Amino acid sequence: MQLHRFLRSRRLPVRVVRLYSGLAAYGIAIAFILRADLGASPWDVLGQGVARTLGISFGTSTIVISLAVLLLWIPLRQRLGWGTVSNAALIGVFADLGLAWIPTATVLPVWSPVAKVLFLATGLALLALASALYIGAGLGPGPRDGLMTGLVARTGWRVWVVRSGLELSATGFGWLLGGTVGIGTAVFALTIGPLIQLALRLLAVDLPSGPVRPAVLKEAPLSVDGAR
Questions:
Q1: Which helix (H) or strand (E) holds 169?
Q2: Helix (H, G, I), strand (E, B) or coil at 82
Q3: Which end of the chain is more exposed for a tag (fewer CB within 10 A), N or C?
């Protein structure tokens, strides 16, 4: 009960702890998924492709893409939150740290396919928990979520149409640039939503039932799609 009271706290220090612990865990989760070598998530396929094209680290590529996405917020008149800025700046840093610390799945003393599945499962579970921590902080949507909601507001298209279009575009461009697409990409797309929904319940995150006005250091709209 004490833990649930802590998790439900709307005090700013608690929310800041949730924000940064969620961002750190998110970056490490990405590293586990990439080290599984079964295919990256849609936006990480793009991150890999940009990294290989520009000759930069994956984390730096993630930051560059986040900043580019934030530029698209300007014509959409989206408002930044503190969590948005932190997301853009830090997830790539933590992903690079994770990639430096975590070896490829094949070094595990088990059959290679099993090791890869274990890494992928670990990454998905950790990413879901990280997303719930970040979302529960309520300090601003991730750059990609903000792009999605901005496009929905401006075009009037359904959320799933916009979200699917963005994910498919990121995957396609990333693949053309050399990003890795595989069974893990499909598993990510099919499972991450339900996993995040479960994590939201486990970490006592109450999503608002109606529209919420964003604020820079106050509560911002929550999304169940993830931290990005």
A1: helix 159-176
A2: helix
A3: N
Phi, psi of 22 (to 5 degrees): -65, -45
Query: What DSSP designation does 81 have?
Result: -
> Tell me, what amino acid is at 191?
T
* Cα pseudo-dihedral 184, 108, 94, 58, rounded to 10: -60
* C-alpha span between 64 and 56 (Å, rounded): 10
Whether 141 contacts 10, CB under 8 Å: no
Examine the pLDDT at 224 and tell me if it is beyond 60: no
Most distant CA pair in the chain, distance = 52
Query: What's 80's DSSP letter?
Result: P
Q: By C-alpha distance, which of 92, 91, 93, 123 is closest to 105? A: 123
Instruction: Read off the pLDDT band of 64 (50, 70, 90).
Output: very high
CB 53 within 8 A of CB 178: yes
Give the chain's radius of gyration (CA, Å).
Answer: 17
According to the model, what pLDDT value does residue 166 have? 93
Helix (H, G, I), strand (E, B) or coil at 212: coil
Alpha helices in 37-142 (DSSP H): 42-54, 58-76, 82-101, 112-137
pLDDT in tens, 70-103: 999 999 988 889 999 999 999 999 999 999 999 9
Q: Please give the Cα distance from 136 to 126 (Å, whole number).
A: 15
Percent helix, strand, coil in the chain, to 5, is: 70, 0, 30
